[in-house]
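Still learning folds. Look over my entry:

…
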Amino acid sequence: MSDAFDRWEVLKRATREGGGAERVAKHHAAGKLTARERLEAFFDSGTFEEIGAYVTTRATSFGMAERRIPGDGVVTGWGEVDARPVCAFAQDATVFGGALGEAHAAKIVAVMELARKAGVPIVGLNDSGGARIQEGVVSLGGYGEVFWRNVSLSGVVPQVSAILGPCAGGAVYSPALTDFVVMAHGTSQMFITGPDVVKEVTGEEVSTEDLGGADAHARQSGVSHLTAANDKDALELVRRLLGYLPLNNLEEPPRAESVEPAASAAAELARTVPEDPNAPYDVREVIDRVLDPGSFLEIQPEWAMNIVVGLARLSGRSIGVIANNPSQLAGTLDINASVKAARFVRTCDAFNVPLLTFVDVPGFLPGTAQEHGGIIRHGAKLLYAYAEATVPMMTVILRKAYGGAYDVMCSKHLGGDLNFAWPGAEIAVMGAEGAAKILFRRSGEGNGGMSEEERARRIRDYRTEFMNPFLAAERGYIDDVIDPTTTRARLVAGLRMLSSKRDDRPPKKHGNGPL
């Protein structure tokens, strides 16, 4: 027993040393935590339970037989986040640079399977240079096994990836398949091919940060959902994300204490949205005055900023928010905004998070760049996402809802359960100015034949007679035209009523959305 115990102690110590003190010191000097330090910071204190600590590489070529390190460069296990169970893996960049080999991949697959069977979220703390070259195609096979689990678990349990170092080559696809990606500013990168390969193939010179840093993916590619200042901030963001989501797709999201907005918030709502249909404003000011204060966690805040999406709470209940933002591109829907909102709608629907949509949209962004870029296909993604969703869906038209964008933004026709409009809302095929040009184009009534006064009168008459929300309400397309000051109260009541919603759809293998 003594010999066995001594051997166990040696191995146990080795599992905690990773790649050795020198590499750990280098890791710390770069402003990064080690894999174990990250897990300790992520989970509730003292709750982490490790599995697979003694697994080592099975490779023997290129000197690998002499480089067997317990754990093989990844720490796996489970713990609690806010007293709820979560599985996780953390790649250890001090061991083979966090590169993935056969045993490394098998450990990740094992903890993902554990998450599937237990019905709990899986969180990946990624810090890897990619496939382990010494293991050749076996490494690529390992990636394939991980990817298959990502797809298998998609929509079953929440999957969150924190990028806390380099994530290159095949390593990027697992995070891309998860529900949320969080990157740490200055220390994390994601790219298929690094700067050296880019230069060799295209002649283009680019830095690692410009190619695949946190800012690049937050502002340009839209790959990243949240940007953190450092490792600890990233881990806290992941904890906060999980607080809005259920453990799995068969459960409801966790409840929190309801927090009421300031007493002045309701009265301020009507003044937040300008009467002038062309005047810009930031829709976040509406969101902040309707939802529980401090609860809004905006997703992808620096990408496609003409639409705002995020998780929040309404009377303590988790809710997903989608809102056109007139302060950017007048709130129009373009390719990126459509893709951003569609993915968010589908994520919320997969995990039973109700949807709240604030509408102020003049239409889709016109132009050859949008048309040739596929706005028809990409815009249809948002339409498809709303039409497919079965969670409770509430919509408030704040000001404009023009053209096809009216339909797309969770209209009654796409399955909206409760659709409200403010009294000043305008619902029409197009704006009054454009409609007047078409309707009064007859001889003597076009722009050339009408005085400015007459043209202004025609526009005013059209807006009054044809664009008010009561016409839509008469048809049942709007459930009620509401006083802006009652918006929160009406939504709280609606969400309470819809909490038991059930919406069956025709059986099928899967739909064929416009990917």
Observations:
- The chain has a mean pLDDT of 90.
